[in-house]
Design goal:
Layout (H helix, E strand, L loop, with lengths): L1 E10 L3 E11 L4 E5 L6 H7 L8 E6 L2 E2 L4 H10 E4 L11 H11 L5 H14 L15 H14 L4 E5 L7 H15 L4 E5 L3 H7 L2 E6 L2 E6 L1 H6 L4 H10 L1
Helix pairs in contact: 3-4, 3-5, 4-5, 5-6
The structure holds adenosine-5'-diphosphate (ADP) and magnesium ion.
Magnesium ion binds next to helix 1.
Pfam families: ABC_tran
Organism: Halalkalibacter suaedae
InterPro entries: AAA+_ATPase, ABC_ATPase_HisP-typ, ABC_transporter-like_ATP-bd, ABC_transporter-like_CS, MetN_ABC_transporter-like, P-loop_NTPase
Length: 241
């Protein structure tokens, strides 16, 4: 589903932020990305839907190469849903409109169909009663569940999550992780940057550890947590667990 070969990226020509990143991700695979702050996790995940460009290497998403061809980038963006730490809902639109906006304008669905699917998704993330409210009236956990529903409304094949629970009060983390866990069981391909180690252990097929722009180690949760091979992995885990 995702093929990354020899990715190198620099910011401002001198900050080498991604170094020879190689990874293949299968359809339906749940990959959790760990690593210290500033190690390039967000940058990496954003290269997959071309929110960040790369200077070297190749990225192919569901058979579509990322290139300067805007058509390809549009197709890849349609296939990838993204959820950010800071929700990024449109504050002046109702919850329902937040979710139906792209399906109506990009997918060209009739309003009725878009609204019906939006309501089904709100049902699925547990907050159908919030449909007519505005983002500012919802808790952080509810807003993040709307953000997930909004991404799913475009029927993506891949979901990218960049620290989706990092901005939440502790009591709201679980409600968002529960929605993500449910999604894991639907066959969705997922890439999740997170510091939630229990979530990683429970759902990840594979964990990747980033440090200073490189993939230091990758493996199953058991391999990585219980038998880490690299000193940098051990050091990272000793600080976080
Ligand atoms: P992480 O998500 O692992 O915390 P990031 O991918 O956000 O790491 O950042 C990796 C490095 O790139 C950091 O040193 C960060 O300061 C730098 N960086 C991130 N975004 C930009 C940008 N738009 N311009 C310049 N440097 C950036
Ligand atoms: Mg980040």
């Amino acid at each position: 589903m995702i093929k990354c070969r020899g990715i190198n990226k620099w910011y401002n020509k001198d900050l080498h932020v991604l170094k020879n990143v190689d990874i293949d991700i299968k359809q339906g695979e749940i990959v959790v990305i760990l690593g210290p702050s500033g190690s390039g996790k967000s940058t990496f995940i954003r290269t997959i839907n071309a929110l960040e460009d790369i200077q070297e290497g190749e990225i192919i998403v569901d058979g579509i190469p990322i290139s300067n061809d805007i058509k390809n980038i549009e197709r890849i963006r349609m296939e990838t849903g993204m959820v950010f730490q800071s929700f990024n809902l449109f504050p002046h639109l109702s919850i329902l409109k937040n979710i139906t906006l792209s399906p109506i304008w990009v997918r060209k669905w009739p309003k009725k169909k878009a609204e019906q699917i939006a309501m089904e998704l709100l049902e699925r993330v547990g907050i159908p009663e919030q449909a007519d409210k505005f983002p500012g009236q919802l808790s952080g956990g509810q807003q993040q569940r709307v953000a997930i529903a909004r991404a799913l409304a475009m029927q993506p094949k891949i979901m990218l999550f960049d620290e989706p629970t990092s901005a939440l009060d502790p009591e709201m983390v679980k409600e968002v992780l529960d929605v993500m866990k449910e999604l894991c069981h639907t066959g969705m391909t997922m890439l999740v940057v997170t510091h939630e180690m229990n979530f990683a252990r429970e759902v990840a097929d594979r964990i990747i550890l980033f440090d200073q722009g490189e993939i230091i180690e990758m493996g199953t949760p058991e391999q990585l947590f219980d038998h880490p091979k690299h000193e940098r992995t051990k050091m990272f885990l000793s600080k976080i667990i």
